[in-house]
């Protein structure tokens, strides 16, 4: 396992640290432009490229189902935690707590980890979990929760829901599936593959750039509880259930790792749109991004065979 983790940690830490350094030195608009480029071009093309090497056989349909079950269990566990608190949490803090307990960074962080640990063969499980699970959940159920606990109006709700259908990764999934079996010249295949890995490296740098802009580390107690639900309790319970229903080996590991990802940056977008507790969301994002380095060995030991 050490041989597997060392190269992965080297890529994750070096990419994020480089992004952190550049985020401190470059103008604030640079991470914004990189994010836009990845969102509209880099990640969609990477999805098409990685899909060409992925196997679509097996029970890939289970990935988005587990994603939705994980999100719903995250909401339930969060409600139970909030109800048992002796101190009163205001509505905006409750909304942020729910969001960070249910929506994971299964794209920009999940993709490189899955590809490094498991490889392209089982990438479809990670992709279906992210697009048909996390993304749809964030901009449907997540927006509904934010609208209920937040202070914004109907226009923002509608705008964020429409964002889900405008997301190019969703269309890249359908395009990639449609043209997966079409042969391409070897030179083009090589270019697509190199381009895709380059975008994964850029995505890690972008995470570092965004983390470098985080200035608040308050609400550590609440953040720790949210991350325990999101990154430990739910993945452990559902990971064991996957084994009981016959989803084992690499597919099981991919789904567990996606469930165990830290909160997504989409939670911050939704938090800001609906005036939820930004400090709680930001602290959960930063702390979760560090915690994943500690939890990865645990999941590999438990489900990595």
Tell me about this structure.
- The protein is mainly α and 305 residues long.
- The chain has one domain (2-303): Up-down Bundle (Na+/H+ antiporter like fold), CATH 1.20.1530.
- The chain has 13 helices and no strands.
- It has helices at 2-25, 29-52, 62-84, 91-102, 110-117, 123-149, 154-166, 168-178, 186-212, 220-244, 249-259, 266-273, 278-303.
- α2 packs antiparallel against α9 and α4 (91-102) packs parallel to α13 (278-303).
- The longest helix has 27 residues, at 123-149.
- The mean pLDDT is 89.
Using the coordinates shown, work out and report the CATH topology: Na+/H+ antiporter like fold
Q: What separation lies between the terminal Cα atoms?
A: 10 Å
SSE pattern: HHHHHHHHHHHHH
The count of strands amounts to 0
Query: In oligomeric terms, what are we looking at?
Result: single chain
Are there runs of 5+ residues with pLDDT below 50, and where?
none
Radius of gyration: 18 Å
Q: How does CATH name the architecture? A: Up-down Bundle
Mean pLDDT across all residues, rounded?
89
Number of helices: 13
- Which percent bin holds the helix content? over 70%
Strand percentage:
under 5%
Instruction: Provide the structure class.
Output: mainly alpha
SSE blueprint and pairings:
Blueprint: H1 2-25, H2 29-52, H3 62-84, H4 91-102, H5 110-117, H6 123-149, H7 154-166, H8 168-178, H9 186-212, H10 220-244, H11 249-259, H12 266-273, H13 278-303
Helix pairs in contact: 1-5, 1-9, 2-8, 2-9, 3-4, 3-6, 3-10, 4-6, 4-10, 4-13, 5-6, 6-7, 6-11, 6-12, 10-11, 10-13, 11-13, 12-13
